[in-house]
Amino acid sequence: MAIAVRTYKRAMTKVAGPHADYGEWIASWQAAMTYAAQMGYPLAKGSSFWYQDVVEAFEGVAQPSVFLESFRVCNRVEISRNIITIDSFVEDFAEAAKWWLTGSGEKAAGRGSSATPHGARSGDRESQPPLAS
């Protein structure tokens, strides 16, 4: 368990600022969190615990902070009930990051990211209902 705790704490390092490599940070965080959760560390298993730590890691970094606040507002119930998984959060983060990093959404953040919205699979975009206005 001690290794899982150290892994979790290492994953929660503060992001260096607006020019940090978000893709590298989120990929490293995802790997560390997955390991800590598999080792049974309770804080890594529930989004109600790790979400606030992610917010603190990005504190003061404008675009990720805006995404994280929007994500919290849209998913507050799911976060509090520990429904948000590490992988689904990373997919949503990558989707947002490709927009704020490129301005066009053409490149995904992070290696191996599927960059699909929460709950969707690659290729499902056209079959998704439009958002209500």
Mind describing the biggest β-sheet? none
Return the string of H and E elements. Answer: HHHHHH
Distance between the termini: 47 Å
- Number of strand segments: 0
Q: Counting H and I runs of at least 4 residues, what is the number of helices?
A: 6
Strand content: under 5%
Poorly predicted regions are 106-133
Describe this structure in words.
This protein has one domain. The chain has 6 helices and no strands. The chain has helices at residues 2-11, 22-38, 42-45, 47-57, 62-80, 86-102. The longest helix is centred in the middle third of the chain and has 19 residues, at 62-80.
List the helices and strands and how they pair.
Elements: H1 2-11, H2 22-38, H3 42-45, H4 47-57, H5 62-80, H6 86-102
Helix pairs in contact: 1-2, 2-6, 4-5, 5-6
Give a nutshell description of this structure:
This protein has 133 residues and is an all-alpha fold.
Q: Which features characterize this protein?
A:
133 residues, 59% helix, disordered C terminus
